[in-house]
Amino acid sequence: MSKSLSNLMRRNRFFGIVALLTVFFSGLLSLSLPSQPLFNQGMEEKSVKIDGMTVRWSLQPGGTIECTMTAPTTGWLALGFNTHDDIVGTNLIMASIEQGKVRIEDQYVVRSGEHLPVNMLGGTSAVSNVQGTEQHGISTVSFTITQHAQDRFHHNLTEAASVFLICAYSMEDDFAHHSRMRQHVKVVM
């Protein structure tokens, strides 16, 4: 075999190995670097889209629900839970992103126009695992909430329960500012 043919075969084998390794490692990287919060595999993800706002949720083993809300705003977003089609009595999770940090409150609507943090009313926040981003005028906030009511300011959100989701957002970060959009939708958890 000539020396040039031997060098060509060696070079082709080298580039073939490099190509295989590149494909292999790029596949691993794409699996390990999610671009957004992931829901646990095997759990049914549900969602609603209303007036530009999208809400996704997934019931998880261990009695929690993973929720994500996205809206075309740089102001606050809110997701409420109620067993009745009413704002009063709603457990309202309000969130905003200011200077890259998520501010979130677990609130209860005492009367129309008056929502207070549950810890000020003697309850305990059911929210954990908070994440959020604000990019190009769109805000996304993810959080985990418990399925079982731990006090009178929360509702049981167990599998197959019918509840009203109160979906809202504002153009301002101030939680006292009125909503630009608020809709109620009945769902089955």
Give an account of the 3D structure.
Helix content is 16%, strand content 45%. The chain has two domains: 33 residues; 144 residues, Cellobiose dehydrogenase, cytochrome domain (Immunoglobulin-like, Sandwich), CATH 2.60.40. The radius of gyration is 23 Å and the shape is globular. About 15% of the residues have low confidence. The chain is an alpha+beta fold and 189 residues long. The strands form two sheets. The protein has a six-stranded antiparallel β-sheet with strand order 7-6-5-4-10-11, with no helix packed on it. A five-stranded antiparallel β-sheet has the order 1-2-3-9-8, with no helix packed on it.
Instruction: Work out the count of structural domains.
Output: 2
Oligomeric status: single chain
Low-confidence stretches: 14-42
Shape: globular
Largest sheet entry: 6 strands, antiparallel
The name of the CATH superfamily of the largest domain reads Cellobiose dehydrogenase, cytochrome domain
Strand content: 35-45%
